[in-house]
Amino acid sequence: MRKRALLALPALLAALPALAADPGLPETEAVRAALDAHPSVQAADARVDAARAEAGALRRGTQEFNLYTSYMSRTVDREGRYNEFDAQLTRPVRLPGKGRLDRQIGDLGIEAAHNMAEDARHQAALVLAQEWWDWLGAVEEAKVDRQAVSNLEATLKAVQRRVALRDAAQLEADQAAAALGTAKVAAAQSAGRAQLARVRLATHFASLPLPVEAPEVPRPVMPGESLESYGARMFVRSHEIAAAEAELHKREAMAERVRQDRLADPSVGVRLFSERGGMEKGAGVIFSMPIGGGHRTALAEQADAQANAARADALAARMSVQETASGDVAEVRFRYESWQRAREALDAQVAALVKLRRGQAAGEIDLSDVLFGERQVQDAFRAEAAARTEAMRMLTRIRIDSHELWIGDAEDAAKQ
Predict the structure, then answer these.
(1) Number of domains observed in the structure of the chain
(2) C-alpha dihedral (75, 79, 81, 87), degrees to nearest 10
(3) Which residue ranges in the chain fall short of pLDDT 50?
(4) Which residues pair with 267 in a beta bridge?
(5) Bridge partner residues of 86 (DSSP)
(6) Residues near 357 by beta carbon (within 8 Å), at least 6 away in sequence
(7) How do residues 230-250 score in pLDDT, each as one tens digit?
(8) Among 86, 29, 95, which residue's Cα sits nearest to residue 63?
(9) Nearest Cα to Cα of residue 248 among 193, 292, 308
């Protein structure tokens, strides 16, 4: 039995996943469908439709015909009663230049909303990747803990047989049983965390089909091209920057539009009237124009301030994306190196445990030392699984942030 437990460690090492073309990830089409169904993406797409409707309204303008009518019955002493009416039809006239700015504001609104929708899809993809690797990492941890329970069960059976043969003291059986109990607690906790991670993923992305068994977390592989090229594409393809700049240009156009509105649009129209029962009739042309004052000046100052705020927001967006790009590159490197060191430590711990077990079989090593070695190996397996998961998480993130995975379109591909 001890021999079978000894062989389980190399078998577990050999079972660590090998390289894959698209390692450990769900199908791209299934992910895209799940992103389409995510509430944040649907809300952002609806805002694009709203921006298109707003652009149509701006293109047409608010200048609409206004009809004013009145009717009265008037009585004049010693003359009688007269029916009189008055009708006016007027319409504001948009002054030259304002229509062009309105169309520009509408188009920029669509551009900003479109980029914000793409950024919402980007953020949803990051959440999906985060929760996907949370699930796979928790399952890997649970596998390690289950294997530890299996190994300690084999150890306990072997010790109990030796106790029955009076080849070992009852204390050794008690030590093995205590270690097994601790391992079972850890296994139950890690299994619960894995289930919780699956529930969260299934809840947030209900339309994403999840396999019954989580895929294994594969060994991370650094991309063939330089990580800096991924960082450069993140900056060039960023919809966050594009949305902020579109919003800036929109605010600048709105500020110019408000400044032009200090000269108000005039209204022109015609008037028809009939008085004294039709004895007096007339028609005329009407012209009216609001005279701007302090209110319009204050609105212009407000629009300028909002344009300045949008300018600062655009600069902040560029800084944020640059920080994300540089951070992703740095984190991919150290996560990959951390996994390599964890793998080396695991190999060393397994080799040490093999020697401890051989020594214990020869009667040269106490069981307590072997159980301590078992615990160290379990910790090493857990550390390796966690480091492998984090490395894969960051490799996935850098591909998403550079629009190489799950998101992006032909327009993004053209931006190098």
Answers:
(1) 1
(2) -80
(3) 1-21
(4) 92, 288
(5) 70, 273
(6) 2, 5, 6, 370, 373
(7) 999 999 999 999 999 999 999
(8) 95
(9) 308
Residue 61 backbone class (left: φ over 0; alpha: ψ -120 to 50; beta: rest): left
Contact assessment for residue 381 and residue 346, using Cβ atoms and an 8 Å cutoff: yes
Residue identified by tokens 């200048």 is: 63
Question: Whole-angstrom Cα distance, residue 196 to residue 175?
Answer: 32
Cα–Cα dist 387/10, whole Å: 20
Pair 400, 129: CB distance under 8 Å: yes
Distance CA 416, CA 288 (A): 55
Start-to-end Cα distance in the chain: 60
Distance separating alpha carbons of residues 203 and 127, to the nearest angstrom? 12
Contact status, residue 132 vs residue 26, Cβ threshold 8 Å? yes
Give the structural domain span for 20: 2-413
Q: Give the pairing type, strands 267-275 and 66-76.
A: unpaired
CATH assignment at residue 179: 1.20.1600.10
106 closest CA partner among 62, 65, 66 = 62
Q: What's the rounded Cα separation, in Å, for the pair 122 and 78?
A: 83
- The whole-angstrom separation of Cα 92 and Cα 80 is 40
> DSSP per residue over 234-263, as a string?
HHHT-HHHHHHHHHHHHHHHHHHHHHHTTS
Helix or strand run (H / E) with residue 220: none
Q: What is the DSSP letter of 290?
A: -
Nearest-5° angle of CA 316, CA 405, CA 249?
30
Residue partners of 160: CB distance under 8 A and separation at least 6: 173, 176
Closest CA to 385 of 99, 42, 148, 36: 148
pLDDT given at position 416: 58
Q: Cα(30)–Cα(207) distance, rounded to whole angstroms? A: 8
- The residues facing 71 across adjacent strands are 85
Structure tokens at 61: 């303008």
Beta carbons of 198 and 210 less than 8 angstroms apart: yes
H or E element: which one contains 216? Answer: none
pLDDT at 323: 94
Q: Cα–chain-centroid distance for residue 122?
A: 5
Angle of helix 98-164 relative to helix 2-14, nearest 10 degrees, comes to: 160
How far, in Å, CA of 347 to CA of 380, rounded? 9
The CA-based angle 250-119-128, given to 5 degrees, is 165
Query: Tell me, what's the pLDDT at 412?
Result: 61
